[in-house]
Amino acid sequence: MTEVRTRIAPSPTGMMHLGTARTAIYCWAVARHFGGKFLLRIEDTDQERSTPEATQVILDSMKWLNLDYDNQGAVVYQMQRLPRYKEVADQLLAKGLAYWDYCTKEELDAMREAQRARGEKPRYDGRWRPERAAALGLVKPEGVKPVLRFRNPDEGEVTWNDAVYGTITVSNKELDDLIIMRADGIPTYNFAVVVDDIDMKMTHVIRGADHINNTPRQINLYRALGVEPPIFGHLPLINGPDGKKLSKRHGSVAVTEYKKAGYLPEAIFNYLARLGWGHGNMEKFSREELARVFDLADCSRAAARMDFKKLAWLNGQYMKEADDARLAGLVKERIAARGGDPESADLVKICALLKGRSQTLEDLADQAMIFFNPYSPVEADIAKSLENGGREALAALLPRLEALPEWKAPGIYAAMKAVCEEQGVKFGVIASPVRVIAVAAAKVPQIDQTLEIIGRDKVLERLRARL
C-alpha cells in the first residue's frame, strides 16, 4: 500500500488564521489515521509580503497546537527551490507544452476590455502560442521580459472525485493558458505547488474550497508532467456567527490571538476539528481519538459557523481537566502582568480552586488576583458584616481557628460550622465577616479553601485586628 502523505502549505504573508489551522488539523488527522506522513511547506514566493516574522508565527502556531509534522528540521521553503522549478518549466518548454508570452500589461488590459465589450469572459487569448504568433506575424518586442505560459488542452474536460464534494467536472474550454513562470523567474502558485507536491510525494491535497478553481489547471499540469494527480479534498470556508465570511469584525481570526486570550491549545484543536466535521455524537475528543476516526467523507459541504460561546464553554471543560501545575505555569505571567507577585502564594492550589470557575486563562488570572492584590478591606463592608450576630460568631470562631493542629480547609470549615451550630445562626453569618476581613473581597470561592491558601498567620492577624 502506498504511504499516505499530506501537507499544510501556508504563505508567510500574515498571521496563521483559524481556517489554515483547521486545514492543518485535517491534514494531520488523515496522515495519522493511515500511519502516514504529515509535512510542512512554507510558500514564500510572494516576496513583497512574505516576512520572517510571519514564518515564525506559523512555526509557533504549529507547535502550540501540537501539530507534529514529520519534516522537523527539513521544512520545505519554495524560494529555496527556484532551480527545480526552472528545470521542470524547461521540460514543458522542450515538449511544446509551454511557451513564452511577450504581452505587455497594457496589451493584456486592452485584450480583456475588448472581451468584456463583446460580452465574453475575460481571459488570455493564446496569441503567443507559437503557431498563432506565426499566423499573426508577431515579433518578439525589444525590452519585454516574457512570462512562461502552460499550454492548456483545447479539448476535453477535467474530472476528479473530490474527497469532500464528490465528482467535479470542468471543461478545458473554460481554462486559459495560465502563467507558470513570471518574468523575474519566480514560479506562480499553481505551478510551484504541483512541482512541490510531486517531489514531496503527496497522496492527498487537502485545502480550502476557494482552491477548487485551481484544481483543474493543476490536474492538467500533473498530466503534462506524466504524473497521476493526488486525491483532492476541498473544505468549505469558516463563516462568522452571522453567516458571513469570518473576518476581524467577528473578533480574533489568528491562532496566536487565541493563545493570548487564554485558550488552551487542546480546546482550539478540538473545536476547529469539529467545525465542519462530525462523527456520531463526538463533541469532545483527544488528538488520538480524532486520528482514529477521522474521514474526509464526514466533512460537511456547507460552510461552518464560528460559535464563540461554544468555544469558550469547551475551553472551560478543558480548563477543569487540566493539570493544576500546568495551569499555574501558564497563568504565572498573567498574574505578573496584573501587578501581582505569583511567588507570594501557592499558585498551584489557587488554580485547583479556581479552574472550575474559569473559561480561559484570563478568567483564571482575574479571579486569582484576590490572592495577589494589596490587602485593602472596605470598612463599610466590615461594619455591616459584624451586625446581626456577626461579631459574636467571629469572636467564637477565632479561638477555634487558633487551636487547629493544621491549617487545612476541612478543619477550617468544621470550625466555622461548629460556631454556627453553637450559636444557632446560618453559615453566612460567620462566612460574611470572615470573607470581608480576611480576604477583603466582595466574592470568594469556597471560603475554607480560600483561607487555607491565604495562610494561618495572615488570616488570624486580620481577624484579631477586628475584635
Automatic annotation (TrEMBL):
SUPFAM superfamilies: An anticodon-binding domain of class I aminoacyl-tRNA synthetases, Nucleotidylyl transferase. PROSITE patterns: AA_TRNA_LIGASE_I (PS00178). The keyword Cell inner membrane does not apply. A motif ('HIGH' region) lies at residues 10-20. This is Glutamate--tRNA ligase. ATP binds at K248. It is an enzyme of class 6 (ligase). It is found in: Cytoplasm. Residues 3-313 form the Glutamyl/glutaminyl-tRNA synthetase class Ib catalytic domain. Its main location: cytoplasm. Residues 327-465 form the Aminoacyl-tRNA synthetase class I anticodon-binding domain. The keyword Aminoacyl-tRNA synthetase applies. Coiled coil: none annotated. It catalyses: tRNA(Glu) + L-glutamate + ATP = L-glutamyl-tRNA(Glu) + AMP + diphosphate. NCBIfam families: gltX_bact (TIGR00464). Catalyzes the attachment of glutamate to tRNA(Glu) in a two-step reaction: glutamate is first activated by ATP to form Glu-AMP and then transferred to the acceptor end of tRNA(Glu). Its EC number is 6.1.1.17. PANTHER family: GLUTAMATE--TRNA LIGASE, GLUTAMATE--TRNA LIGASE, MITOCHONDRIAL-RELATED. Monomer. Signal peptide: none annotated.
